[in-house]
Write a structure and sequence with these properties.
6 helices; elongated; mainly alpha
Length: 157
């Protein structure tokens, strides 16, 4: 069991999503962010005459890393949950992982770091696409969490 699963299981209110699937997506996002950051750095370490052809890949790596990290953070928070925001963030991460995976795939036969990053992006994109249908907004503050903001909980005691 990952720490992500343990934290979801320890959450004091109900989360109306499959904890294992949600944890797997969060963990995939964090791994993808790391792979993208490392790939961007590896691209920058390639010989100077190759940097121009890697510039789009580097930019896509950095964008994907930032979006994946942000998406993992958004999916880790459930108090005052906003389904519309979570869904939009997941859609942005799907696009980022697709774009980065495509960029890295172009260089994967010449650069092992790009092959590895493309693989991480593809796996994360698949996990996000599988989660997306569960994030259908029912209301601005509807599922997956039925928790109340902390101040309201303290006042009701």
């Amino acid at each position: 069991m990952t720490y992500t699963e343990k934290m979801l299981d320890a959450y004091p209110a109900q989360i109306n999503l499959d904890h294992r699937q949600l944890a797997a997506v969060i963990d995939a996002l964090e791994s993808c962010a790391q792979a993208c950051t490392a790939c961007a750095d590896a691209c920058l370490s390639e010989p100077a005459d190759r940097l121009a052809m890697l510039s789009r890949c580097i930019r896509d790596n950095l964008d994907c890393a930032a979006i994946c990290s942000t998406t993992a953070a958004v999916l880790s928070r459930h108090t005052g949950y906003d389904a519309n925001l979570s869904r939009a963030q997941v859609q942005a991460a799907i696009q980022a992982t697709k774009s980065c995976g495509d960029s890295c795939a172009e260089h994967s036969s010449r650069h092992e770091h790009c092959r590895i990053c493309a693989e991480a992006c593809r796996e994360t994109e698949q996990a996000l696409n599988a989660l997306l249908p569960q994030l259908e907004p029912t209301s601005a503050t509807g599922p997956p969490s039925q928790s109340r903001p902390q101040q309201q909980q303290q006042q009701s005691r």
